[in-house]
Write a structure and sequence with these properties.
The protein is α/β, with parallel strands linked by helices. It has twelve helices and twelve strands. α7 links the parallel β6 and β7.
Length: about 350
């Protein structure tokens, strides 16, 4: 229960900072006193996925350590059919100031609930706006530059592959995950036009992010077809892809967090969405009274909220000149020399 409480409060801070309307809200007396309470609802896969959810949780831990906030959290069961009830319960708690939904599947529910609770602040990570429907002024959508980050990951794969065949495995087939696939494929082809990319998806519902057995099955199939590197964007299902890389002694590119510790020597890199940093930034904005709602806020490659991992643990896997080449590509994307369009998916 203590961990639940800590997580909930940190999320509150996240929501405030990540919102985007033109006029900041004045901080509440609770926030000024350092008593802001956050309620966070996890995506499918829950705490312990070593990916998306764990990164959000870590952001709340950072906020607690740095600012003394508190938080609680909730995990939807199964495919997350009860996420709406979990969000509503958080919002109805009189001690909760900020409610955070972790994942694109929360978009519709959190939009409706934000309208029902205009005195609370809300944040949705990987928010998908509905075409023609404005965000409530107390809701901030948080997004990352998945396509650009995946383009960089694809460039790494295209430069490192020795078989000229690489794979992509997504979790739930959706607009956001297709951005991972498209960006990755474009990055591979930019540096290695002769390379082949084999795509696959685990499923069509939220449970696709919590099926490591299927992830491993698909990965083993791609490795058997000649892929020597697979890029996974599959949440907890990605652990199966990592296990397949370990089993076949091939390489994997992970997402959301640096997952090299899960398979040392086999994780080529990770395309990280630094959700923990974004959560901390949002919390600090709430404490400063600069919460902005009614818009989508982008955490991109410019300030490395979206990035790829390169350090002393994986540098040998890159080989000579690869990092310098990819950094040059990153600069060209930022300057517009290389066009990688980051269109937000809509329903």
């Amino acid at each position: 229960m203590n961990r639940l409480f800590r997580f909930f409060l940190a999320s509150v801070f996240f929501l405030g900072a990540c919102s985007g309307s033109s006029t900041p809200e004045k901080s509440s007396s609770r926030a000024e006193a350092g008593n802001l309470r956050v309620g966070l609802v996890f995506d499918v896969g829950g705490l312990g996925d070593r990916s998306f959810n764990d990164s959000a949780y870590h952001g709340l831990e950072l906020a607690k350590e740095k600012h003394g906030i508190s938080f609680i959290h909730s995990e939807p069961s199964g495919e997350g059919a009860d996420r709406e009830a979990a969000l509503r319960q958080m919002a109805a708690d009189p001690d909760v100031d900020l409610v955070i939904g972790v994942g694109l599947l929360f978009s519709d529910d959190i939009t409706a609930i934000a309208r029902d609770f205009p005195d609370k602040k809300f944040v949705c990570i990987d928010y998908i706006p509905k075409k023609g429907t404005p965000l409530p002024e107390n809701l901030s959508g948080v997004v990352f530059e998945e396509k650009r980050g995946s383009f960089l990951a694809g460039a790494v794969a295209g430069l490192v592959t020795k078989t000229n065949t690489v794979g992509f495995i997504g979790g739930m087939e959706s607009g956001i995950i297709r951005k991972f696939e498209t960006g990755f494929t474009e990055g591979v082809k930019y540096v290695n036009p002769e390379a082949t990319v084999i795509p696959a998806y685990i499923g069509m519902t939220g449970s696709a992010f919590a099926n490591p057995a299927k992830g491993k099955e698909l990965a083993l199939g791609q490795y058997a077809r000649g892929a020597d590197i697979i890029y996974e964007a599959a949440g907890a299902s990605g652990m199966g892809v990592i296990e397949a890389a370990r089993t076949t002694k091939k390489l994997v590119i992970c997402t959301d967090r640096d997952q090299e510790p899960d398979a040392p020597g086999f994780v080529l890199t990770s395309m990280v969405k630094t959700i923990d940093r974004a959560v901390l930034k949002c919390v600090e904005d709430v404490l400063a009274g600069t919460f902005r709602g009614g818009a989508v806020r982008v955490f991109g490659i410019g300030d490395r909220y979206t990035d790829y991992v390169y350090n002393d643990r994986n540098s040998a896997l890159f080989g000579a000149g690869v990092h310098d080449r990819v950094e040059d590509i990153r600069r060209k994307i930022l300057s517009g020399v290389i066009a990688v369009e980051e269109q937000a998916p809509t329903e």
